[in-house]
């Protein structure tokens, strides 16, 4: 918790979905949190996503995957690069 709150930027590296295909990036967390609102960027096996005050913005994603498919695989609202929130 101290590292998450005290850091200038917190980067998360994870798989985009569970082995069962369920969302791992969600609108609202269901587990207790130790660092709320401290994540700056999420790196997954499918995409790089910035966490901004206005929501999640996909910065880049793997070749061959459309933005619409990436958005479907993400359990939270996602906007393409440069879109206004």
Number of helices: 2
Overall helicity: 10-25%
Beta-strand percentage?
A: 25-35%
Poorly predicted spans: none
Largest sheet: 5 strands, mixed
Overall structural class, as computed from helix and strand content, comes to: alpha/beta
Q: Mean of the pLDDT scores?
A: 91
Order of helices and strands: HEEEEHE
Number of beta-strand segments = 5
Keywords for this structure?
85 residues, alpha/beta, 5-stranded mixed sheet, 5 strands
In brief:
This protein has 85 residues and is an alpha/beta fold. Helices cover 14% and strands 31% of the residues. The protein contains 2 helices and 5 strands, in the order H-E-E-E-E-H-E.
How is the topology of this model organized?
Blueprint: H1 2-6, E1 10-14, E2 39-44, E3 47-52, E4 55-61, H2 67-73, E5 78-79
Parallel strand pairs: 1-2, 4-5
Antiparallel strand pairs: 2-3, 3-4
Description:
With 85 residues, the protein is α/β, with parallel strands linked by helices. Helix content is 14%, strand content 31%. It contains 2 helices and 5 strands; from the N terminus they run αββββαβ. It has a 5-stranded mixed sheet with strand order 1-2-3-4-5, with helices on one face. A hairpin with a 2-residue loop joins strand 2 and strand 3 (47-52). It is globular, with a radius of gyration of 13 Å. The mean pLDDT is 91.
